Please model this.
Amino acid sequence: MNYSIGFIGGGNMAASIIGGLINDGFPANNIRVAEPNDTARGQLTTNFGIQTETDNAQVANNVDVLVLAVKPQVMKSVTEHIAASVQDKQPLVISIAAGIRSNNLSDWLGGDVAVVRSMPNTPALVQSGAAGLFANNNVSESQREQAESILRAVGITVWLDNEQLIDAVTALSGSGPAYLFYVIEAMENAGVKLGLDADIARRLAVQTAFGASKLALESSDDPALLREKVTSPGGTTERALERLKEGGLETLFIEALQAASDRAAELADQLGSGD
Model:
């Protein structure tokens, strides 16, 4: 690992990626973080043994890969502040902020910048994330490999040829954990109505969701076939699934993800305009 990585922002997602990188054997002394909060800096140093500081430009001046891990609302001011450093050093820039398009990032950083835009999700906090990646035309093949290696430290990665598909990724996997939490919550509440203790219902619902996801991830069968395998004709599962279909569950999911994708595009327009 003969390259260095800098993070602008040391919050939960940045800490998760750093932890994943170190667990994968990336040298701690090749990682630097700029973070204004004293407590957060102290935790990063204690937990990972990395160098931390408060000066964003100082980090940008001294790394080969720069990960932008700040809130979307402050991204414009942060990037404009480090633009001179980025133009001088020419690092690969990876953004994990939602809703900021690669052309806006490149412009704010002075233009002609190698940018990879990524949409990770919160399960990255437990190294089980899913991230969609888009690279602009300035990103080299070796830089693509670097970006993939960094995000793969906390989960799976998929490359997108069209940046507009980031909105679909946001709708599916970016927001997706909330949908599944909602399903778990609904199953738990249903279990309680059937007479189970709330703690028992929660444990069963959470473990069932985990087990089903693990089975889907590790099986060569697609989810539809897995569903068929556990659905005996005339049995309890078939009866429940019929009720879900009658309620229009699939249509609701299509409409929900479309709404999320539309909102992602709206937010990108707003953030890109600086409003």
In short: Residues 95 and 117 are 5 Å apart (CA to CA). The domain at 176-264 is CATH 1.10.3730.10 (ProC C-terminal domain-like fold).
